[in-house]
Write a structure and sequence with these properties.
232 residues, eight-stranded parallel β-barrel, two-stranded antiparallel sheet, 9 helices, IolE/XylAMocC-like, Xyl_isomerase-like_TIM-brl
């Protein structure tokens, strides 16, 4: 499995400096936060070179709001294609899904719907499954462990239900108040989730997203990485 980091974890840094930190930590994969790497960026060659210089491959990008507008959608897919992004993490409007399903076939790029908390329109993995089960299999879910816990659903059940429709996992942990903490120090069954992924032989990027301590996130990121590496 590909282990990387959601660059939102380093949101107080410029993207260039965030990539340098990842390189120093031995991180090989990144999911780029749109404010770090706007999909409207024109200098594709410079973006690719920046990642190569740091030895970090951008394999996912998001979270992107996707509307039912073919021109706008194509601009995001064109960007992902040029930068060699494999997964667009998304918050799509419901009426955009059929068009998205057509575009994932055309571009061979996955779209992963992110469950962004208990009040979010895509908070439930069950809703995501119902809305995607009849679409192309490249349309699926980005499973955020902390947000799904706050919603009250079981992430292991989500993996078992969506299986190869889960295209990205935001690896997080929470305490008994539902607050984000270092992965491995909280109450989430991260080991069970990764065990289920391995049991089902799924090829899902694992992206650590460490949201606490935005001014000094590196120690927490390091401890989270160490824990997940042990599980792998």
């Amino acid at each position: 499995m590909k282990l990387g980091i959601q660059s939102y974890s380093l949101r107080k840094l410029t993207y260039e400096n965030a990539l340098k930190v990842m390189s120093e930590l031995g991180i090989s994969y990144v999911e780029a936060f749109p404010r770090h790497l706007p999909p409207s960026s024109n200098s594709v060659k410079d973006i690719i070179n920046l990642h190569r210089e740091n030895g970090v491959k951008v394999i996912a990008h998001g979270v992107n709001h996707l509307k039912s507008d073919e021109k706008e959608l194509r601009s995001i897919f064109d960007f992902a294609n040029k930068v060699e992004i494999e997964v667009i993490t998304a918050d799509p409007d419901e009426d955009s899904l059929n068009l998205i399903s057509d575009l994932v076939k055309e571009y061979d790029i996955k779209v992963a719907i992110h469950n962004h908390g208990p009040t979010h329109r895509w908070g439930s993995y069950k809703k995501i499954y119902e809305f995607t089960k009849n679409l192309d299999r490249r349309v699926g879910m980005c499973l955020d462990l902390a947000h799904l816990f706050r919603y009250g659903e079981n992430p292991i059940e989500a993996v078992n239900t969506l299986r190869d429709r889960i295209h990205d996992i935001h690896v997080k942990d929470v305490n008994n108040k539902g607050e984000d903490v270092i992965v491995g120090s909280g109450i989430l069954d991260v080991k069970g989730v990764i065990g289920k992924v391995k049991e089902l032989n799924l090829d899902i990027p694992l992206m650590i997203e460490y949201e606490p301590e935005p001014e000094k996130p590196v120690p927490g990121i390091v401890k989270s990485l160490e824990y997940v590496k042990k599980l792998l």
